[in-house]
Amino acid sequence: MSLETQHRxxxxxxxxxxxxxxxxxxxxxxxADAREDMSLGKIGIEGHKVHTIPHKDICAVVHSCSxxxxxxxxxxxxxxxxxxxQKVVDAAWExxxxxxxxxxxxxxxxxxxxxxxxxVKDWLKQEYEEFKRRIKKVKGRAEYGVQIFWxxxxxxxxxxxxxxxxxxxxxxxxxxPKGLAYMYRQRLENLMKHEMETKADEYFKDFYGRIRKYTxxxxxxxxxxxxxxxxxIMNLSCLVYRDRYTELGEELGKINRMRGFAVRFTGPWPxxxxxxxx
Amino acid sequence: xxxxxxxxxxxxxxxxxxxxxVEIIRDALNLQAIKRMEGGSLTEEExxxxxxxxxxxxxxxEEIKQEQGIVESVRSVRDGLxxxxxxxxxxxxxxxxxxxxxxx
Lengths: 278, 104
Prior knowledge:
The complex is a heterodimer.
Chain A: H1 2-12, H2 14-17, E1 24-32, E2 39-41, E3 50-55, E4 58-66, H3 75-96, E5 99-101, E6 107-109, H4 116-126, H5 128-138, E7 141-150, H6 152-162, H7 164-175, H8 178-212, E8 217-220, E9 231-241, H9 245-257, E10 261-269
Antiparallel strand pairs in A: 1-4, 1-5, 1-6, 2-3, 3-4, 7-9, 7-10, 8-9
Helix pairs in contact in A: 1-3, 6-7, 7-8
Chain B: H1 7-39, H2 44-68, H3 71-93, H4 95-103
Helix pairs in contact in B: 1-2, 1-3
């Protein structure tokens, strides 16, 4: 998640780039569900002092900076920044339970007649209802990542033993001369691919239904290419009530124990995937 | 982006690209061959000859890839193309994407 966030962040902060170098800004990590006006110490990006800016019963978690976005051609440097960003969000999340994380490099700048601090306050005030609505949506929940993999080899083997069509073709190949055997093998491979896709679909629906029961919201993410021996067939971000976490874990355990399947269950995370949009 | 041209990696890149394209054409040929075979328009003997020819093509491609050490670069070209196609398809058939594009 971190890498995607940072790429998006680069384009998102055009707002801040327009500012003059020395201008003052506030780097915003997240909006927390807390009535707090305090300092969190020097835990920010590059050791900046992090503090809160309150409005009613919510606050923004920020550090003071120039109104320049954090930019570097060095991927490692950017990664370190993003990690620090996540650390601060984590800290706020542990402390106040409910936070709305912002993407990396969100900076609110001051204007000639208005300080950055005041701008943040106004922003909280203006968007207050929306923030409250989103806080309500994620309160008491945490985000978990669920990735399900299968081993194509193992699945293919079990298909060969269960599908009469595939088994017949497999037998036939052994009796054919070279050229014919080659053609039949191609056909078998195509058939197999088709069957695997159908299977993947079936499993997806089955697993999705089972996972959905224990989650408040699910986002289907793009599957990523893993190694050839282990293929990702599902990649979900799940918003889960904290007290249902064990049940979800148990269900995933069942899937993980199926032959040829593996589950990666990560979290809890602050609800990064569930704070935007509807 | 800086384009860093070193003769060896250029050769790898171009060769990888060429072989990736040959592989794609091979796949298309295979698909056609299978369709005809399944359609019943080929005699047993013709299928045998077709199979032999495709098999030799396979072996030749594999040999070139091994000899030139471009197995990886061919794979990366094909993976890259797969992703492009996935993206295009996703944009065409996924209504969620239409909404996102419209909001931009």
